[in-house]
Write a structure and sequence with these properties.
alpha+beta, three-stranded antiparallel beta sheet, two-stranded antiparallel sheet, elongated
């Protein structure tokens, strides 16, 4: 059984989010959530929420027929894509302006149950 979760337009840089996603790729749900709980990055609670949503979607697709626990569910794919960038300016000396890019991410988490 396979299910997915999408988190779009998340205000975290995709480059920084991929660092955290690489830590949990291929792990079980329990193991991944434990790793994210102890990872001091802004993307950690966002990824944890997406993983919990995907795990809940497996149970919904399965109609609750088999009482699965999170150790039977593992992350088969986690993908961080770049979303639209908000462009802002920072005033600088002598009338110049520097650009600030506020990047966003699209997070796709696919989980599978092996039971």
């Amino acid at each position: 059984m396979q299910a997915l979760s999408l988190a779009r337009f998340v205000r975290v840089s995709p480059r920084k989010t991929r660092i955290v996603a690489d830590l949990i790729r291929g792990k079980s749900i329990d193991e991944a959530l434990a790793i994210l709980a102890h990872t001091p990055k802004k993307a950690s609670p966002i990824l944890a929420k997406a993983i919990q949503s995907a795990a809940a979607n497996v149970l919904v697709k399965n109609d609750g027929a088999v009482a699965m626990n999170n150790s039977n569910i593992f992350i088969s794919e986690i993908r961080i894509d770049e979303g639209p960038t908000q462009k802002r300016i920072r005033p600088r000396a002598q009338g110049r302006a520097f650009r600030i890019n506020k990047r966003t991410s699209h997070i796709k988490v696919t989980v599978e149950s092996n039971g």
